[in-house]
């Protein structure tokens, strides 16, 4: 099945019945665990790495592993750069064969964000790759803002999507990256309004810690891509820790298997909620 474009997975979801999970990975074991979950469930998947994690996992090393994992998979896999902020990293991801790149201009003014997103769209077009962009501010690693600043408005979402021609749009509807300090208050009505005027697929960031019921409400409201990072990292750490507790002579290879298994279980759990099981014929 192999490496595909993000749009090939997202554009066909027209009835708000499911969303494709986009799972952050940081090493080969996480790539293997995530792809195995997709294969076992006959599910499409997006693998992604965020620019902020590159100090731990250099793109020039991990990127080729992600692309090779996709090409060898029995299901369709898109390979995506998450939260690209520098043009150098975006260019490298495209050179390595990523099928989509995100430009995160959320810390810039709307006009700057539009101008830079258009540059990224042109860069990606050379490779026939897709782009994702963001309007509004998702809390957590993007800083602390008041509730109103965090929520994308209908007008700005439409203006931004029309001006940039982005292939997917990340919107801020009350989720945050990382661990939730309090129960998230999701703005589903706002999401519905945005979905009714923006035709490109909408993306939910900050998926870890969202309840199954809220995931389903987001999908029915128009979300077609859901990003999951923190809960996979937590699952990997927990599996390694448990393995060490079980057997203090556990080997490197036991820990490697634990990392793949932690990712596998977390990815599978989310795919079942997102409704992608058996979407690959
Ligand atoms: P979490 O770490 O909260 O799952 O967020 C993932 C994400 O949105 C990556 O872009």
TrEMBL record:
Enzyme Commission code: 4.1.2.13
Details of cofactor binding: Binds 2 Zn(2+) ions per subunit. One is catalytic and the other provides a structural contribution.
Binding site for Zn(2+) 1: 83, 177, 205
Domain of life: Bacteria
CDD domains (alphabetical): TBP_aldolase_IIB
UniProt GO molecular function: fructose-bisphosphate aldolase activity; zinc ion binding
Keywords noted in UniProt: Lyase, Metal-binding, Zinc
InterPro entries: Aldolase_TIM (IPR013785), Class_II_FBP_aldolase (IPR050246), FBA_II (IPR000771)
Residues where dihydroxyacetone phosphate binds: 178, 206-208, 227-230
GO biological process: carbohydrate metabolic process
Keyword 4Fe-4S in record: no
Annotated residues for binding of Zn(2+) 2: 104, 134
UniProt xrefs under Pfam families: F_bP_aldolase
Ranges in coiled-coil conformation: none
PANTHER family from the UniProt entry: D-TAGATOSE-1,6-BISPHOSPHATE ALDOLASE, D-TAGATOSE-1,6-BISPHOSPHATE ALDOLASE SUBUNIT GATY-RELATED
Protein name listed in UniProt: Fructose-bisphosphate aldolase
């Amino acid at each position: 099945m192999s490496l595909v474009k993000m749009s090939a997975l997202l554009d066909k979801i027209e009835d708000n019945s499911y969303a494709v999970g986009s799972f952050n990975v940081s090493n080969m074991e996480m790539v293997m665990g995530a792809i195995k979950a997709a294969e076992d469930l006959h599910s499409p998947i997006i693998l992604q790495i965020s620019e902020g994690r590159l100090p731990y996992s250099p793109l020039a090393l991990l990127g080729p592993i992600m692309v090779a994992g996709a090409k060898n998979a029995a299901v369709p896999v898109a390979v995506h750069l998450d939260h690209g902020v520098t043009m150098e990293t975006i260019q490298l991801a495209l050179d390595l064969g990523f099928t989509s790149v995100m430009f995160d201009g959320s810390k810039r003014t709307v006009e700057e964000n539009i101008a830079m997103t258009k540059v990224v769209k042109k860069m990606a077009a050379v490779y026939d790759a897709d782009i994702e962009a963001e309007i509004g501010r998702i809390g957590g690693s993007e800083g602390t803002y008041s509730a109103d600043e965090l929520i994308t408005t209908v007008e700005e979402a439409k203006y931004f999507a029309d001006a940039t021609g982005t292939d997917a749009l990340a919107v801020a509807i009350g989720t945050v990256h990382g661990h939730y300090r309090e129960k998230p208050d999701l703005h589903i009505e706002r999401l519905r309004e945005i979905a009714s005027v923006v035709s490109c697929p909408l993306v939910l960031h900050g998926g870890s810690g969202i309840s199954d019921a809220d995931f389903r409400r987001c999908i029915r409201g128009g979300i077609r891509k859901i990003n999951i990072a923190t809960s996979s990292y937590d699952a990997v750490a927990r599996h390694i820790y448990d393995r060490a507790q079980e057997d203090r002579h556990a080997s490197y290879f036991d820990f490697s298997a634990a990392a793949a298994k932690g990712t596998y279980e977390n990815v599978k759990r989310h795919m079942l909620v997102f409704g992608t099981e058996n979407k690959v014929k």
